[in-house]
């Protein structure tokens, strides 16, 4: 629980542990090959470099893949000679251990919420964000975090709308480390050739107060979401957790549906026959218009990926995960997901709007009642330098959350091979 409280929303951040300037580079090779179907392997080559001293750190991570997987895996359409590559991390960080303060400028994935792979708040798999990030721990119980990030720009008619996302939250950890609570707000704003609004850099003032008092003329191109997530360790090896989103709630009969999100989950970590065992059960419910808004391109989507729940809006899901370690090197994993969608999971405009623009596909909002079941079973071996995983699954091989591209898949066998090499040297 304490690690969750101290963890920064920046996925690549970790406290500095060296005094001298170091260079730390990691090179990896990832192969994902279907054995039932003739699908080209996804070759992923990554390099990760750190340069740091007492207070500052520069982190650079570059990924390269086959051109056909460039947008699916790296959110980029740039390629040369059949290879796509982009920066996943490129940032300058300042960290003061004495004052527990972090300040970061650059590109980095962001994760907010209680679950890494299925959070409703900010999903780390939505891609890296060019952002300014601040975190400060006031004492052992209270921490504040805030950020402002630039999203991908969108076209509307002949105009280009720049899009930005800001967020801030307060975290509380009880003295006995049994209760962790995060409460915060996210605010997405857009505009023609718009730049970063300094008012939304404030980590203290609620965004809705800033938004109400501003004197803008024109359409409402801002969308705010309040969120609450928490975890309670009722036993040493068991916890329950939840996430709640308040995007829009109608007190009166306005004809507009509520836009809410809810997650309830249970974790169990213990020893089974002397080996590490993990079990997770989770339920998610998203209303039809959660993450959407009537403004132009003010919906929670980044590079066609949902910023929040990875399966988008208008859905409910039940999932089970099991992980069992045979020993220090071998383990097996099993996951099952039942997903019910009431419309394709692309996050776009409110369903009652009638916007005549090709960027908005009204057919995506047609009623749909589709239930899908996905599973994945694998056995893997891992040591300091190598990971080999063999499994059988019916999950789509690549990023299936992009633009709602989620379809039934035949079962297939796959092999995943990761090789890591790292070195350190003083400069």
Q: Mind explaining what this structure looks like?
A:
The structure is a single chain. This protein has three helices and 22 strands. It has 427 residues and is mostly beta strands. The chain has a single domain (2-426), classed as Capsule assembly protein Wzi (Porin), CATH 2.40.160.130. Strand 18 (315-325) and strand 19 (330-341) form a beta hairpin.
Task: Name some characteristics of this structure.
3 helices, mainly beta, Porin, single chain, 427 residues, 22 strands, two-stranded antiparallel sheet, 18-stranded antiparallel barrel
Topology (elements, then pairings):
Elements: H1 2-6, E1 22-34, E2 44-52, E3 56-66, H2 70-74, E4 79-80, E5 83-96, E6 101-108, E7 129-137, E8 142-150, E9 154-156, E10 159-173, E11 179-192, H3 207-213, E12 222-235, E13 238-248, E14 259-272, E15 275-286, E16 301-302, E17 305-306, E18 315-325, E19 330-341, E20 370-382, E21 386-393, E22 412-426
Antiparallel strand pairs: 1-2, 1-22, 2-3, 3-5, 4-5, 5-6, 6-7, 7-8, 8-10, 9-10, 10-11, 11-12, 12-13, 13-14, 14-15, 15-18, 16-17, 18-19, 19-20, 20-21, 21-22
- Distinct helical segment count: 3
Order of helices and strands: HEEEHEEEEEEEEHEEEEEEEEEEE
Count of extended strands: 22
* CATH structural fold name: Porin
CATH class: Mainly Beta
Shape: globular
- Percent of residues in beta strands? over 45%
Weakly predicted, low-confidence segments: 16-23, 350-365
* Spatial separation of the terminal alpha carbons: 37 Å
CATH level-four homologous superfamily name = Capsule assembly protein Wzi
CATH architecture: Beta Barrel
Number of domains: 1
Largest sheet: 18 strands, antiparallel, barrel
């Amino acid at each position: 629980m304490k690690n969750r409280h101290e963890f920064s929303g920046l996925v690549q951040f970790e406290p500095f542990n060296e005094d001298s300037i170091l260079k730390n580079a990691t090179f990896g090779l990832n192969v994902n090959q279907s054995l039932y179907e003739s699908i080209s392997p996804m070759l992923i080559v990554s390099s990760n470099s750190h340069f740091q001293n007492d207070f500052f750190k520069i982190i650079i991570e570059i990924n390269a893949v086959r051109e056909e997987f460039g947008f699916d895996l790296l959110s980029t359409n740039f390629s040369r000679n059949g290879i796509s590559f982009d920066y996943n991390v490129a940032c300058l960080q300042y960290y003061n251990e004495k004052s527990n303060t972090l300040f970061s400028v650059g590109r980095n994935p962001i994760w907010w919420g209680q679950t890494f792979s299925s959070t409703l708040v900010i999903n780390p798999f939505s891609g890296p964000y060019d952002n300014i990030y601040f975190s400060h721990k006031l004492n052992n119980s209270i921490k504040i975090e805030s950020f402002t990030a630039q999203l991908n720009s969108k076209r509307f008619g002949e105009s280009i709308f720049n899009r930005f996302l800001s967020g801030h939250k307060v975290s509380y950890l009880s003295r006995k480390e049994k209760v962790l609570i995060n409460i915060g707000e996210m605010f997405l704003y857009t505009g023609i050739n718009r730049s970063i609004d300094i008012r939304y850099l404030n980590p203290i003032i609620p965004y809705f107060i800033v938004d109400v008092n501003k004197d803008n003329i024109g359409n409402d191109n801002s969308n705010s979401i309040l969120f609450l997530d928490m975890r309670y360790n009722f036993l040493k090896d068991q916890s329950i957790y939840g996430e709640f989103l308040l995007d829009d709630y109608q007190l009166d009969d306005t004809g507009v549906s509520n836009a809410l999100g809810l997650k309830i989950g249970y974790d169990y970590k213990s020893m089974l026959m002397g080996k590490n065992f993990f079990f997770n059960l989770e339920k998610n419910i998203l209303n039809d218009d959660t993450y959407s808004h009537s403004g132009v391109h003010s919906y929670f989507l980044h590079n066609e990926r949902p910023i929040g729940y990875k399966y988008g809006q208008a859905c409910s899901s039940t999932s089970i995960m099991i992980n069992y370690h045979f020993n220090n090197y071998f383990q097996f994993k099993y996951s099952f997901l039942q997903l019910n969608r009431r419309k394709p999971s692309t996050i776009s405009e409110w369903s009652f709007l009638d916007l005549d623009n090709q960027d908005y596909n009204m057919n995506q909002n047609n009623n749909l009642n589709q239930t899908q079941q996905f599973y994945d079973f694998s056995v893997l071996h891992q040591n300091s330098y190598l990971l080999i995983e063999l499994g059988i699954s019916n999950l789509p091989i690549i990023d299936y959350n992009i633009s709602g591209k989620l379809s039934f898949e035949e079962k297939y066998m796959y092999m995943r091979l990761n090789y890591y090499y790292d070195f350190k040297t003083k400069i």
